[in-house]
Amino acid sequence: MRQALCIGRAGWFAVAFAAAMALAGCAKQDDHIYQGYVEGEFVYVASPVGGRLEHLGVQRGQSVNAGAPLFALESVDETAARQQAAAQLQGAEAQLADLNVGKRVPEVDAVRAQLAQAVAADKLSSTQLVRDEAQFRAGGIAQSQLDASRSTAQSNAQRVRELTNQLRIAQLPARNDQIRAQSAQVEAARAAVAQAQWRLDQKAQKATQGGLVFDTLYREGEWVGAGSPVVRMLPPANVKVRFFVPQGVVGALKPGQTARLHCDGCAADINATVTYIATEAEYTPPVIYSNTTRDKLVFMVEARPAVADGPKLRPGQPVEVMLP
Length: 324
Hints:
This protein folds into two domains: about 1-75 and about 210-320, Elongation Factor Tu (Ef-tu), domain 3 (Beta Barrel), CATH 2.40.30; about 85-195. The strands form two sheets. It has a six-stranded antiparallel β-barrel with strand order 2-10-13-12-11-14. Strands 6-5-3-8 form a four-stranded antiparallel beta sheet, with no helix packed on it. The protein has helices at about 10-25, 75-100, 105-135, 145-170, 175-200, 245-250, and strands at about 1-5, 35-45, 50-55, 65, 70-75, 205, 210-215, 225, 230-235, 240-245, 260, 270-275, 300-305, 320. The protein has six helices and 14 strands. The model is unreliable at about 1-30 (pLDDT under 50). α2 (about 75-100) packs antiparallel against α5 (about 175-200) and α3 packs antiparallel against α4. It is about 40% helix and about 25% strand. A hairpin with a 7-residue loop joins β11 and β12 (about 270-275).
């Protein structure tokens, strides 16, 4: 969002000049009443992501509350990107969970079954070795057969130890380094989801504060560039009055001072508070003023009404400002 003033610099110079002339030339004007005009600091609502204007939820002149939907741009690409990021996050989280629990139950059961077979084979070869040793001592078998029995028994015993270790490893989670690396992948996937969600959310803009929809700048179906304002709003707090006082009065003014505003058609005068006093004159440069022209110097002053009274005034509306 960005703000802009209702009347351009050249415009309010012209108004100020007219006010200054009125001050100088109108003998019937009260010394404590000054001419001014209403000005609005507009809020331009835009999306940082471009797209076709799919829905415009407000119209010019409508008053809306904070949070009211203003407009929505087409979001096919952003929706697909959000779904893709969510799927990648789901896959990363599943892989991290798999690393934390170790191998699957069927895989562990397969190793356990292999271990049972190895234990049975080890028992059988151990028994056979005992028999062959007895036969060899009795001279019933040759040395080569005894050596073969011993080799088989040793091999089966090693196989039991190997499968026992494999079963223990299968029941453990992955190494800490692997888990940390996958955890980082999960965090990256979550960040991608958040980014995709943010882009998707930016396609539909809502009013951050209540106020008047002063103008709409696009029609449905038109392409809106990134950052291009679609709705121009005027919150009540952004309404102010600019008026001009002669150099003989400005010295007595100070921010926070009260003033009363009178306008044609207003049911009653509106209270306002002085918020800004210019430090330089608007017209005749101070370096060339004389005693005969210094009364024409005017200083711009800004005053703001209460937020509740803001909607009673319209930008460009002439007002009379009464100072105590």
